[in-house]
Amino acid sequence: MEEITQTEETLTEQKTKENGVKKFFLRALDIFAGVVLLVVLSWLILILMLVKYLEDFHNPLYISVQTNANGKEFKLIKLRTMCIHADELEKQLIAAGLNEAEPPKFLLTDDPRITVVGNVYRKYRLDKLPALINVIAGHITIFDIFTKNNYKKPKM
Predict the structure, then answer these.
(1) Are the beta carbons of 48 and 79 closer than 8 angstroms?
(2) How many C-beta atoms lie closer than 10 Å to residue 80's C-beta?
(3) Confidence of residue 156 (pLDDT cuts 50, 70, 90)
(4) Beta bridge partners of 74
(5) Global pTM?
(6) Is 36 exposed, middle or buried (0-12, 13-18, 19+ CB in 10 A)?
(7) pLDDT digit string (tens) for 35-73?
(8) Which of 41, 80, 103, 126 is the most exposed, fewest CB within 10 Å of its CB?
């Protein structure tokens, strides 16, 4: 009986060590890839910011509060793809009954809030490039940037 308990404890310790090593290497990969990509793509990010600024002469960055896979809130940095007053317009669109998703999520096939430049940025996922800062900070992983949103807005 004691042998079984000791074997279970040993297996638990091994799994804990393996998980720790795996987390360490994944975090190291995130930091390395995030820094390299941010340095290599910084010129592109600056050009994209300039193009967005020239479209409407407002801040090209959009910062929103999101929740990561661990349930912690963080500020996600993206290139702005919508018009300036998109949050206010969303309320108006919901009031008009145009929401195509179940609340609290909002979805509209041809969303009028998305700008011309923003449409291109979304199509090629260029709006997510500034989120490399969030990767380096440890809020999200490098894989979160290139996949559909694995983070979400916190429930209000």
Answers:
(1) yes
(2) 23
(3) very low
(4) 66
(5) 0.80
(6) exposed
(7) 999 999 999 999 999 999 999 999 999 999 998 878 889
(8) 103
Q: Which residues contact 66 (CB under 8 A, 6 or more apart)?
A: 73, 74, 75, 76, 151, 152, 153, 154
Which residue shows structure tokens 């799994």? 15
Cβ–Cβ < 8 Å for 141, 37: no
Write the pLDDT tens digit of every residue in 3-34: 566 666 666 777 777 788 899 999 999 999 99
Largest separation between any pair of C-alpha atoms in the chain: 73
Closest residue by Cα to residue 60 from 126, 12, 9, 146? 126
Distance separating the N- and C-terminal Cα atoms of the chain? 50
Q: CA neighbours within 13 Å on the CB side: how many for 116?
A: 5
Structure-token match 């969030």, residue found: 134
How far apart are alpha carbons 76 and 45 in whole angstroms?
A: 16
* Token digits of residue 16: 């804990």
